[in-house]
Amino acid sequence: MTASRSASALRRTLVCAAAVAGALAAVPAAAEPKLHVEESVKLAAPVSKVWAVLGSFDGLAKWHPVVASTEITKGSNNRKGAVRSITTKDGAKLVEELLDYDASAHSMRYRVVDWPLPVTDYVSTLKVVADGSGSRVVWTGDFLRAKSAADVDDKKAREIIAGIYTAGFDGLRTALGEAAPAK
Questions:
Q1: Pick from 81, 79, 86: which is nearest to 59 by CA?
Q2: Fewer CB within 10 Å, N side or C side of the chain?
Q3: Which of 155, 169, 183 has its CA nearest to residue 42?
Q4: 0.90 exceeded by pTM
Q5: Rg over CA atoms, the chain
């Protein structure tokens, strides 16, 4: 093989290698799977009574025992895009945005804008459905564990969110005048 053929073959190889490297660089890394938590509670109260207590985006303090106050800081209550500022009884601040609200389906979906918990990209749905003569509240959340929370693994992140939901259910039972189930 002559020197010019060698140089030409080398150029083609380098061009091909560069094209392959460019194509591989364009492929995004596999997205980290979101964690999922789903908790539910069966209540004796009918859907309409339960929704009357928890169906207001600005009403979290009326039933969640950890929440001291909730205030709409942007938009209108129960309207897509509304932003609520939450202050917990221990002074923590949270900001959440309403993504969807459907009063007839007794459902709302929201995302966290800012909070002190070790999870990110949190989106949650709170829904009330009929269950026999009573109702069932289903609270779900999808999120990522914050990489900055080195002492929190996926299991612990799920437990934290599940604990928020179950504490809320306890407060909801109290707000509805229902006793907690026997353990």
A1: 86
A2: C
A3: 169
A4: no
A5: 25
Same domain, 114 and 172: yes
- Write phi, then psi, for 31 (nearest 5 degrees): -65, 140
The residue behind tokens 């990522």 is 144
Q: 67 and 16 in one domain?
A: no
Strand locations in 16-158 (E): 35-43, 67-74, 83-88, 93-102, 107-114, 119-131, 134-145
Confidence of residue 183 (pLDDT cuts 50, 70, 90): low
CA nearest 171: which of 95, 66, 45, 43?
Answer: 66
Domains in the chain: how many in total?
2
Whether residue 183 lies inside any domain: the answer is no
Q: Indicate the SS3 state at residue 36.
A: strand
CA distances from 60 to 88, 137, 172 (A): 10, 14, 10
How many CB atoms are closer than 10 A to CB 33? 9
Residues 7 and 80 in one domain: no
pLDDT per residue as tens digits for the range 78-102: 999 999 999 999 999 999 999 999 9
Sign of CA dihedral 114, 55, 33, 155: positive
Compute the distance between CA of residue 27 and CA of residue 145 in angstroms, rounded to an integer.
24
SS3 category, 59:
coil
Pairing of strands 83-88, 67-74: antiparallel
